[in-house]
Amino acid sequence: MRERLLNVQHRFNPLHVHCRLVERGVNQAVSLSICRWYEALVYGWLAWLSVVGIQLCKVLRAGN
After folding, report:
1. Distance between CA 26 and CA 18 in Å, rounded?
2. Distances in whole angstroms, Cα of residue 33 to Cα of each of 16, 22, 23, 36
């Protein structure tokens, strides 16, 4: 489960998203603008939730 959460965190990382947008033909300046907003509005929550999920996995595993 931990590996899946880390994989999700990596794939939704703003730099990763920027690279994928540029690979798909989006202008680099437009992609940077999109990713700045994405990081501010979405990624902060996703990163926080993934950290909480990893901590929960640790607690549950320690309880067994």
Report:
1. 9
2. 14, 12, 16, 5
What proportions of the chain, in percent to the nearest 5, are helix, strand and coil? 90, 0, 10
Full-model pTM: 0.69
25: left (phi over 0), alpha (psi -120 to 50) or beta: left
Least confident of 3-12, 31-40, 41-50: 3-12
Six-digit token string for 19: 């690279």
Distance (Å, whole) CA 8 – CA 14 = 12
d(CA 34, CA 3): 27
